[in-house]
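Course assignment 3, question 2. Fill in each field.
Student: A.L.
Task: Predict the tertiary structure for the chain below.
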Amino acid sequence: MNSNRAALMIALLGALPGIYLRASGTHFGTVADTALYGLSIVAAAFLLGWAAEAAEVDITQGLAVALIALVAVLPEYAVSMSFAWKAGTDPAFAPYAVANMTGGNRLLIGAAWPVLVFIIWWRSRLRELVLEKSHAIEVLTLAGVSIYALIIPIRGTIEIYDAAVLFLGFVAYMWIVARAPSEEPDLMGPARIIGGLPATQRRTAVGTLFVYSAIAILASAEPFAEGLVHTGAAFGIDEFVLVQWLAPFASEAPEFLVAGLLAWRGRAGVGMGALLSSKVNQWTLLIGGLPLAYGLARHGWAGLPLDPRQQEEMFLTAAQSIFAVAVVLSLSLSTREALTLFAMFAVTFIVPNTEVRLIAAVIYFVLAVGIVIVQRKELGALIRAARETVAETNAAAHTAHETHH
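Answer field:
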């Protein structure tokens, strides 16, 4: 218990430097500042994970996981929205906004998903990550928004009405997971300390940790990403590559860490659920937020334009998402499937040219169609699982309503 309290205190203190540096404007040099901002992000990720686990005592697991994803992905929003806002007055920044978004999305599926499967294999030698049937909601939501996203690169702009459609998709998803029933949580480590507090103290502690983590992440994300970009630029790395890959890697760090920690502690299904939820809110709120930031900066409602390179990147990202949905139709992810996701991602990362992007997108589509045909029974089972989850959600909400009255 003492070690758990110590871990909690260390994480609380570790998240503080980023807040202090950002609020005070203090600078110790690029390398030192970047390291301190990185420390704050890591510490905030630990706090976020513990708070979200403890929150399961009071709210559904699905909502807790969605909150993890939403807070953990805040750095990606901060960076992408910053580029979209700047693009409103300087069109040169428009490609960077989309590059950061597509890079972050592809890292999530191509790197984070396989890492989770590797952690499971490393810890238990299991060759498959299995999801609960309630995650059918995330998978089907991701399928819908990924198919819709194919329209965007074909059109060549991200419009305000795209934001409306994608936001509605996110609201519907959150409405379902917030009401879904869940089992009693089995808390460990610092989460057990927080979860064991009296109700009022527990809710206050969880809320405070969520807010504190969000502040630390938001304060640290952009300067951490910029610090990495400047460091990379000093070594002669192309700025576009830094914006598309290095900055998203930095800003995605909290959700990678939270999911990895959950998997390491034997809760890989919850960790994967957090990554699925992150993908859903990036593919809805993040994409939808870009034309809003761009339009507000321009004082109008013109869509965010995509140049040919960004149309290719967006098309490839949507294709990867559709393939990822096909892979998890069975609500599981095997080591072979994880290796395929990583290998495809690695090829497009190592050889970033038009031909490779288009060929990879076609391969993603062909593989996805093949999987859906072969596993069409799994598709039916996935839809039934989603219906059952919604039915259980409605029944639980009705029971709660009757009990209340």
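Instructor remarks: The mean pLDDT is 83. The beta strands are 128-130, 157-158, 304-305, 332-334.
Grade: pending
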